[in-house]
Every structure is written in C-alpha cells, then in structure tokens.
Backbone:
C-alpha cells in the first residue's frame, strides 16, 4: 500500500519536523509513505477576500496537478466527517481490501482548501471542530495514519 | 487570570516538550500559567480491568488533591462537548467576566480519567473523536488555550 501526504506549506519549527520524521520512519513498516510538499502562496496582511480566494485557487491547481491518477483521496477539512481512530482504521482497511492500493491525504493551505479539491475527495475528514496550526495538523495527521495502520496490523500502539 | 494545566504523566519526547515550552512562553503574555505534572501509575501489559480501574482511581486521587479550591474546572475527555476555537475563547471569556480568576485544564492518564474528576468538572471538553497520544494532547491543549487567549485579546494568531 502507498500513502501520499500532500501538503501545502512547509514545517518551519524543528519540533514538529522531528515529530513528523519519527512517525514517517515508523510508518514505513506498514506502507510506502511519500510526502509531497507544495509551495504555499504568499498572502499579505490585509489581503482582500478575492485575493485570498485567488491564492486558494492557485494552491488548488498545485494540489490537483500533484495528485496521482488512481487513488483514494482523503481531504482534511473542519466541516468533514468525524471518525474515531478505529473508524479511520476500518475505512483504510476497506479501501485497500476494495482493491485501491494508494491513499492520498490532502492538507490545504493556511487559508483553506480549494472547493474543487473538496469536491473531488472520496472522503472529507474532520479531525476537530477546533482550528489547529497547519504544522500541528501535519503531526496530528501522520500520527493518526500510523495509529490506523497499527490498529489494522493488530499492534499495541493504540492501547 | 490564572491557568493551571494539570496533567497525569510526563513528556518524554523532546519535540513535544519544546513545543509546549514555546506556547507556555507566549501564553505568559496573557495569563499566569502553571503546569502541574502528576506521576502516572505504572500499568503492566496484560493488566486486568480491575487493576486498570484501580490505577485510574489512584490517578484521580492525585488530581483531586492537586486541584486549587476555587476554580473553573475543564476536564478533557473524548465523549465531552465539542467546541470550535472561537467557542472555547468565548467560554473562557464568560468564565472570567463571571468573576472566576482561575481555570484548571485537566488531562487524565493514558488509560483514562477517573469518573469522579469528570463529575466534578464544570465543562467536559472533547478535542476530537480520535485518540491522540497523551503527549500530543498536551501540545494540542496548550495551543488551543493560547489561541483562545489570542482571540479574546483581538490578536492575529488565529487568522
């Protein structure tokens, strides 16, 4: 199984980068993980709504161009479906037993995700009603992917 | 305003400890933060349900003993109320304008939180339907407290 983590922006803080690297290493026991980091658009302080929308659209173009053709697409958005860790594990299990060998997890930019990407997603997944920093979301995401894989492998990490 | 973060267990990973320290430093601009770390009970692999319950109860005793007398108590639990970051900010604002000067945030041990602590809490707060590691929850919590304070202070962090 292949897992692609498609992410707009980069991790500047060493502590988050270290946490992500640690989970990436562990995840490689279960699947082939690829991080696809896309450059975020620079949005100035006091940008207008239409400038922000244009930036989100440009980021959307980059995401759409980066998506591998055949894959199950999971887009992270606050208004999406809430799953427990066990439900996410079960969903991933169903996807792969259904014959799909690639799962894309997509994290939009700091200002939001292009509606076209949300539309295209097979699953819109919400981690929380709360807003977290973008970089923190990336740690939270990779930890949940690892947790799901570990649950499916019968591991003890999640207990 | 005083904020106490009462936490069972400790942070072993440097990356999470660094992230917590960073937010703690920033939070001090808004309130007086105190971390109260309580020693977790050691639970062996294959412990029985009753051994686990006994450990949770012992951890509960420590939490109850550590709670400052007069305070608004917020206990984190997966089945609690889900609030957006803005709603949490509003709640904190209401607590303090209501005359309460101390807010306790309580994070239980890795195996769960004593029902007595949940019972006593003024608010049971759920961050997610997902389970995160204990240490990660501590980073997520302090980030949300900082975010809430920043929202209430009219800051730009959350934007």
Residues:
């Amino acid at each position: 199984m292949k897992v692609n983590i498609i992410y707009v922006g980069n991790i500047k803080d060493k502590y988050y980068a270290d946490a992500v690297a640690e989970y990436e290493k562990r995840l490689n026991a279960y699947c082939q993980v690829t991080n696809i980091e896309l450059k975020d658009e620079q949005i100035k302080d006091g940008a207008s709504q239409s400038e922000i929308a244009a930036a989100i659209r440009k980021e959307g173009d980059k995401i759409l161009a980066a998506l591998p053709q055949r894959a199950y697409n999971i887009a992270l958005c606050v208004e999406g479906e809430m799953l427990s860790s066990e439900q996410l594990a079960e969903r991933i299990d169903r996807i792969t037993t259904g014959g799909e060998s690639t799962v894309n997890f997509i994290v939009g930019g700091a200002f939001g995700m292009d509606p076209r990407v949300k539309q295209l997603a097979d699953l819109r997944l919400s981690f929380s009603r709360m807003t977290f920093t973008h970089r923190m979301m990336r740690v939270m995401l990779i930890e949940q992917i690892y947790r799901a894989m570990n649950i499916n492998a019968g591991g003890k990490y999640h207990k």
